[in-house]
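Hi U.,

Before I forget, here's the chain from the pilot set. I'm dumping it here mostly so it's searchable later in email.
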Amino acid sequence: MKLPKLKYNSDGLIPAIATDSLSGEVLMLAYMNEASLKQTLKTGRVTYFSRSRQELWEKGATSGNTQNLISIKFDCDKDTLLLKVKQSGPACHTGKDTCFFEEITFENPNTTQKEIPTAEIITELYKIIKGRKGQDPKSSYVASLLLKGHEKISEKISEEAGELIESAAEHGKKEITHELSDLWFHTLVLLAEKDIPVEDIYVEFKRRFGTSGHIEKAQRVKK
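Structure:
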């Protein structure tokens, strides 16, 4: 296997940043050497080099929290790798989904600059909704909705869609944003009720990229 000319450090290692292939969330930072990189590319299962044990380690080989490689890139300096992976279970040894869960608090001098949530917040919300299944319907709105089934959930989706249409015709951006959020929330509840992973929606959107809407619709009709 011919590898690109990468710049390893004096110990023969190169940093490897693993990100979730669907949400884009940064999961962890580890190191690879040439042997672990070759093994990763050969097997499709991400293998790193342990600096403490001085040996190769396949992610999740003992814990079951594996990483399947989706794609791999290197930066312009050729000294850092960026992996997109399909993560099974938590990425962090602490049990957290990502190793980057601690935050440094500070007074931001750029008061106008705020962190904007990305698609990962949809994934996180879906996980919370899924976690409400089987809980006490008296203490959880989502649990009560899931218990009532898809007919009630569909009724709520129809109701929220109507309110969104009304807001778009009669109200401003704030109201439209609020109603759209309600609609998306209830569609996520429907996905959870049907046991459809939210990732399937991301995949479907990706599939449609680069295809004319007219062509895509015509293909669906033929099916």
